[in-house]
Amino acid sequence: MSQPKQQQQVPGIQSEMSPVPDCGEDSYVGSGQLTGKVAVITGADSGIGRAVAIAYAREGADVVISYLSEDSDADEVKRYVEEAGRRAVLIRGDLADAQHCRDIIATAVEELGRVDILVNNAAYQMTRTSLEEIPDEEWDRTFDTNIRAMFHLCKAAVRHMSPGASIIGSSSVNSDMPSPTLAPYAATKAAIANFCASLAQLLGEKGIRVNSVAPGPIWTPLIPATMPEEKVSAFGGDTPLGRPGQPAELAPVYVLLASDAGSYISGARIAVTGGRPML
User: Fold this and answer.
1) Domains plus CATH for the chain?
2) What is the CA radius of gyration of the chain?
3) Which residues are catalytic?
4) Which end of the chain has fewer beta carbons closer than 10 Å to its terminal beta carbon, N or C?
5) Which of 93, 101, 99, 106 lies closest to 120 in space, CA to CA?
6) Do 2 and 233 touch, CB atoms closer than 8 A?
7) What SS3 class is residue 66?
8) Rounded CA separation 64/207 (Å)
9) What is the pLDDT of residues 114-166, one digit of tens each?
10) Which of 157, 215, 220, 146 is nearest to 185 (CA)?
11) Which of 212, 215, 210, 211 is closest to 247 using CA atoms?
12) What is the rounded CA–CA span in Å between residue 172 and residue 276?
């Protein structure tokens, strides 16, 4: 299975992809697993974050939709959340700014009263074929967006969380099978998994659970925006299932980790890789 050759500018627009990713818009059916909860999701305009936002709303949660600058995609997610009968709060801005991270949590508390679920999902990557080719600013941006922002978001959110709350980090199969052409990204994804494991132990006494999800190749705007056309076309074809995953196929895992059904799951890294083994 392959996708048409295509390329976009960072951060990428979901509606301009071919095929458009399936985020569960027409398929996800909720069953009240998150009724009355408040969720903050970064990178919620497209891809995995979008699928999680739609699923959470249909499970009964109000959702804060944090995104960089993709207004049209974010507006669509807001519409899906509201169509599910839940409140949606859009927050536009760059997670590389520590104060913006703190402002996201402050806005969530001001608008929705508290934070029950924090999904640290937004990420940046870029394909580079040599170490010398990686600009210093790109290395810093990758770490600022992927892991430094998670620190600031978690630190700000914990004081507003009660027992039963859940923090979820989006790691990657790259966390222990790093791609040589995604070195900065892979390093941050290993850091996310490690940080989540530490937080699970630090926050257990507060009744706050912390886990990470490790996706394999998932069809999101990050792919055509950060990879060469030939890699985009072949993306996901080397998995045992022979195709990239769709964001909708990740959403149930994020629902489980946020819900009472996952009440004894903490410190875990759950692989959703299309058959690629993880250590």
Assistant:
1) 14-272 (3.40.50.720)
2) 17
3) 185
4) C
5) 101
6) yes
7) strand
8) 22
9) 999 999 999 999 999 999 999 999 999 999 999 999 999 999 999 999 999 99
10) 146
11) 215
12) 11
